[in-house]
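Hi P.,

Sorry for the delay on this. The queue was packed all week, but I finally got your sequence through. Input first:
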Amino acid sequence: MTMLSRVLGLVRDVVVANFFGAGSGADAFFVAFKIPNFLRRLFAEGAFSQAFVPVLSEYRSQQDKAAVKALVDRVTGTLGLVLMLVTALGVLGAPVLAMIFAPGFYLQGGERYDLVVDMLRLTFPYLLLISLTALAGSVLNSYERFAVPAFTPVLLNLSLIGAAIWLQPVFDQPVMALALGVLIAGCVQLLFQMPFLWRLQLLPRPRVDRHHEGVKRIMVLMIPALFGVSVSQINLLLDTLLASFLQTGSVSWLYYSDRLAELPLGVFGIAIATVILPSLSRKHAEKSTEHFAKTLDWAVRMVLLIGVPAALALLVLAEPLIATLFHYGEMQDRDVMMAAMSLRAYACGLIAFMLIKVLAPGYFSRQDTKTPVRIGIVAMVVNMALNLALIGPLAHVGLALATTLSAFLNAGLLLRGLRRDGVFVWQDGWGLMAVRILLANGLMVGLLYWLVADAALWLEFTLWQRVGQMAMLVGLGVLIYLVTLLVTGLRMRHLRP
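Then the structure:
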């Protein structure tokens, strides 16, 4: 389901690139969507879910269904009230938010700043809707109902595709259709999950109760987690802020390259993290330290097994991938080359991005949100320093590279802390697995480098030539990687936690 969502996300971006390219309208939408989307990561998928799921799992393990239902009702009411206030402030303060998060647009004046303000007023209510959707998804994940929350983002992608195709002729500024599509998607996604909560007998009846024991614990855990779990998103937002000072198209180049790096991160990294958090939370509640360590070790192995070839493929195939997916309509040759440069910078950090996703639950499942906060603050400060150092010589590529370097620092500090606490222990078989992965990746990269055509040729290929060539490259790359792993003795039993 996650893979379906991410593939449709790429289709969405292909449609957006075709209709709006990398011009001022696209730049304005990506900023207007990134602000509520960033806050969604903080309130919903980030800090909230990491604080809520461990407490909910503990309630489920140690108390009856009535207590669980009472917790869900009160969390829904309290979170909903806070988000309604934040949403109202966001809509009213859209000009100020646009000035803060895209100061380059504000200082340059013109239509980009005005468009961001107008679109923010449509996209900001998405924060309320999708955060409540994430709450529902957290409940379903805690009850091992992973498919429904994983499928829900498909509805956002379908809404934006439909808006770009059918609604954009209605507006004087066609790109405004995308902002309306975001608002529609928020409503549809929330309504979609309600029947599944009802089936679990956990459809919430919102109650505002800040003094409920579970609500207080979640609030205490959530406040520091606002920083700890969403550092990578904060770094990306800082990239957007600084990119607003660069030449037109810089925001869009970073967006398109980030979206490609997000595909393996979302399909595998976030999916693994989503699955292990409730499992780790239960193992911690049951004081099963051995199984806790084995689950974390399994997650790291899976990240390396999948993330290393994905990162290398993005490095080798950067221009062909950007051209195949986005080089249509308003997307120009130069846009492809510039986006490919930042894609390579993000690809270098893909392993670190994925490790952050699977190592952070090792803290949150133990209801420790303070340690990731301290690590996150260090990584953010380093990221900003690197941004300022690299933006001059490397422009938008420097921003992507700074994010990558700070992500490695973040992942390294998280791993060191888990090792120090004794909750992450290297299991048997790492040496042999590392040899297998290195050999398989070496053969895959060699094959791809030998077969891939010059980047300039991909700009001249027709659609079907690009699709055919890319399908061949991806298919052969996957085949040589998997065959090498099998020939060297890797089996499914070696990948079980």
